[in-house]
Write a structure and sequence with these properties.
Strands 3, 4, 5, 6, 7, 8, 9, 10 and 11 form a 9-stranded mixed sheet that branches. A two-stranded antiparallel sheet has the order 1-2. It has helices spanning 2-9, 12-24, 27-34, 38-52, 68-94, 114-124, 137-146, 191-196, 207-218, 232-240, 250-256, 287-311; strands at residues 57-60, 63-66, 101-107, 129-135, 151-154, 163-178, 199-202, 225-229, 245-249, 261-264, 271-280. The chain starts with a helix and ends with a helix. The longest helix is centred in the N-terminal third of the chain and has 27 residues, at 68-94. By secondary structure, it is an alpha/beta fold. It folds into 3 domains: 2-80, Orthogonal Bundle (Arc Repressor Mutant, subunit A); 85-169 and 274-311, Periplasmic binding protein-like II (D-Maltodextrin-Binding Protein, domain 2); 171-273, D-Maltodextrin-Binding Protein, domain 2 (3-Layer(aba) Sandwich), CATH 3.40.190. The chain contains 12 helices and 11 strands. The chain is globular and about 70 Å long. Helix content is 48%, strand content 22%.
């Protein structure tokens, strides 16, 4: 029975290659991810397909289209490799967390504080590997749905998913303008006046855009959108260049140590949200993930609150 099962699922390495192909979308991407040559990847995938007895994917133009057998094998591969990883992490726990992998995926703005959180943790457990993915909110939701990571960091939780949540710290979204802008000279600016200025907004799928659009809808306001920009850094530089005003997370300014922009005191702002660590409900956390969550909820949270106090712009 065991040899028959092995003949169907192939070797662990073949399953890793199949997952890399599925997630990367090409043989080239899979080879680069696993530090293999493209012929080696193609040969191993061919062997896996022969072992299963069905084609796993087809080349349609420049894209790969996975067959039903390919999708089923990808799902099984993920389960098999995850089980092996959980075993490895349990054994690592017995060895004092000297090895193993912690996977985090976060919305773009969280990249400003997550590294500060990871630094002391990695110093404490130098043997572990960290896989840190930064993407916009929609892309992180897609990773969540595929179960690719241990934790997902959101400021606006996705709807319709069964999740466990640990709130971490506030994420205030503030109005910003160039320091010399007329709006920065006023003690209080109406929301209507602020929205008449050329507004720079994040791209679709961004958590900041989601929060901003929800806020404007709740206040029945239509901002004068001048540009759509796909990164916080590009928005800040556009603001500095006098191209418009925007709403961004205060963390972007505090941890980025940005000079030349100023927070505008606009009525009804800031938009109050909170960063949260989340994971799939019912998911068994690995020993490393459990230790990291305890760290986040105690000294990690205290450390980040103190960092915000010392770095927050006035």
């Amino acid at each position: 029975m065991a040899s028959r099962l092995h003949a169907h699922i192939g070797t662990f390495r073949q399953l890793e290659i199949l997952l890399a192909l599925y997630e990367g979308g090409s043989v080239k991407a899979a080879a680069e991810t696993l530090f293999l040559t493209q012929p080696t990847v193609s040969m191993q995938l061919k062997k896996l397909s022969e072992a299963i007895g069905f084609p796993l994917y087809q080349q349609v133009g420049r894209k790969l289209k996975f067959t039903d057998a390919g999708i089923a094998t990808v799902q099984t591969a993920r389960q098999v490799l995850q089980s092996c990883e959980e075993l490895d992490m349990r054994l690592s726990n017995l060895r004092g967390l000297t090895s193993g992998t912690l996977r985090l995926a976060c919305a773009t703005t969280a990249k400003y504080f997550i590294p500060h959180l990871l630094g002391p943790f990695c110093e404490r457990y130098p043997g572990i590997d960290i896989q840190f993915t930064v993407a916009n909110r929609q892309q992180v939701i897609e990773r969540f749905e595929q179960g690719l990571d241990d934790f997902y960091v959101f400021s606006h939780l996705p709807q319709g998913l069964a999740i466990e949540v640990r709130e971490f710290m506030p994420n205030d979204l503030v109005a910003i303008a160039p320091a010399a802008h007329p709006l920065t000279k006023q003690k209080k600016v109406s929301l209507e006046e602020f929205c008449q200025a050329g507004f720079l907004i994040r791209e679709q799928g961004s958590g900041t855009r989601f929060a901003t659009e929800t806020f404007f809808k709740e206040h029945d306001i239509q901002p004068n959108i001048k540009m759509t920009i796909a990164s916080n850094e590009a928005i800040i530089h556009s603001v500095l260049s006098g191209l418009g005003v925007s709403i961004l997370s205060a963390h972007t300014l505090a941890f980025g140590e940005i000079y030349g922009v100023k927070v505008v005191n606009v009525e009804s702002l800031p938009i109050k949200t909170k960063w949260s660590f989340s994971w799939l409900k019912g998911q068994t956390l690995s020993p490393i993930a459990q230790v990291f969550l305890e760290y986040v909820e105690t000294e990690g949270q205290a450390m980040m609150h103190q960092a915000l106090k010392t770095k927050q712009l006035g």
